[in-house]
TrEMBL record:
Segment forming the signal sequence: none
Organism: Flexivirga endophytica
Domain of life: Bacteria
Alphabetical list of InterPro entries matching this protein: HotDog_dom_sf, MaoC-like_dom, MCH/BMMD
Segments forming domain MaoC-like: 18-133
Upper classification of the organism: Bacteria, Bacillati, Actinomycetota, Actinomycetes, Micrococcales
Protein name: MaoC family dehydratase
Length: 156
């Protein structure tokens, strides 16, 4: 069952279940996003920043940085609102893959599935294993991977 969340909620570890799926809103990647990311990351590789060079390359145009896509994905997941009050710590990014290029004009969205949920050893928090799949406007998978999150348990 896919749940669409429109506003932040007071979710805690106990509100999540293995198999739960959430879908984010879309976000269109712009040329300004790519240029800005290149500027603050210092990654000015021509594959991202040179339209003339890129026209003759594999993709025929500049592509977004993979980490720009990942950053936007984390922002989209944050906008679901379900992790806002319970997040304690991002635990890691595992097996992240950049499967298809993202270019200016693409609209990306993320499907997040709770793949695992377990209490911490001391029982004071929970760990959510989250599978994220990022698609473009044509439902082509552009990125995917797992991002673990430690979350608060419901106060007694």
């Amino acid at each position: 069952m896919t749940q669409e969340m429109g506003s932040p909620a007071d979710w805690f570890f106990e509100d999540f279940a293995v198999g739960q799926t959430f879908r984010t809103q879309g976000r269109t990647i712009t040329e300004a996003d790519i240029v800005s990311f290149a500027g603050w990351s210092w990654d000015t590789n021509p594959v991202h920043t040179d339209a003339v060079h890129s026209a003759d390359g594999r993709f025929g145009q500049p592509i977004a940085h993979g980490l720009l896509g990942l950053s936007v994905t984390l922002g989209l997941v944050s906008r679901l609102g379900i992790f806002e009050r319970c997040s304690i710590a991002l635990l890691g990014i595992d097996g992240w893959r950049f499967e298809h290029p993202v270019v200016a004009g693409d609209t990306v969205r993320c499907t997040l599935r709770i793949a695992g949920a377990r209490a911490t050893r001391n029982g004071k928090a929970g760990i959510l294993d989250r599978e994220l799949t990022v698609t473009n406007q044509d439902d082509v998978v552009v990125q995917r991977g797992n991002i673990g999150l430690m979350v608060a348990r419901r106060p007694s």
